[in-house]
Amino acid sequence: MSGPALHLAVEIDGDGAHPAAWRRAAHSPDQLLGPRRVARVAAVAENAGFTLITLDDGVLPPGASPDPVGRIGAVERAAFVAASTSTIGIAPVVPVTYAEPFHVSSQLASLDHISAGRAGWVVAEEERPEAARAWGRPLVADAAARARESRDGVEVARALWDSWEDDAVIRSVATSRYLDRERLHYIDFTGETYAVKGPAIVPRPPQGQLVVLGRPDRVPSAQLDIALVGGRELTDVASAAAATDTPRVFAEVEVALDTPDATAAERVADLERHAPWTDRGRLRHIGSADQLVAFLGELSDHVDGVRLHPLVLDEDLPVLSRLVVPALSERRLVARPLPGTSLRSTLGLERPANRFTAAAVQEEAR
Description:
- 35% of the residues lie in helices and 17% in strands.
- The chain has eleven helices and 13 strands.
- The strands form three sheets. Strands 1-2-3-4-9-10-11-13 form an eight-stranded parallel barrel, surrounded by seven helices.
């Protein structure tokens, strides 16, 4: 546990956690294909005091007709949001089941530069066979193979973020030297299915290493900064959190809240007429804001944060912002991110030393 503060993350992809959430949204479906919608939602979360927003993604469309099936890529949306926010962390979901880790590493490092050190990465998997055809890659068929690709992808990305030492960029006009080549390094990674030589094409991120989030049963805990743990009961989450040795642990929580117009149960029932709310093995709260505050208070004894998945963003996020986050602040259970701080600093995580610099120092000491 990081201390008394419970860090709040919220997933803001699409219109909400329910596949038919768009039916209760306060905008037309075509706005999901424009960047300003996600920027407005991010601004609400930042003004409320959330620590982090995440943006789900995948190569395949997120839904099936008659639901909206299009979206902009998570990294592109994250870059747009980064330019219009100043304190909130931004973590796109980027699977590396088929994507090239070298390019993923470059995109995420660029995002950290754009956001001045507020970027994270949610590691995920492409599970559907259609994803392999969309990428034009051989099928990664079983769970163990997908876990291997995630493990190797994170290892490559982390090594590439270190392949530039912090002072590799010189920018000396007087001497016409802009880069110290001695401070760029090959990573020489060889895995079961590919090899990467390096170095990166983007300087080391401001945070040194982005904050990496993922499921500890899919990515080795040593590669994660934040473990995302599920479980349908509080005891399940508590057990999963206790068994995880990552620096931070966040619980996955789906929420449907009472609003001035309808109770949470009525809202869920309305959407269930069109499609079922998929059971992803997560905690689920359906009820009032006060009940959620009490529930999160209980969770704070076991985890460092939560990632909330609102039923309908346009209905639940305002309630979270007006009632839940302020109540948690009054109880001193959450702390608002401070301007000018990196995501790592907000989470109480140290900026890691560059592995190549550390190795050189050790060599000199011998």
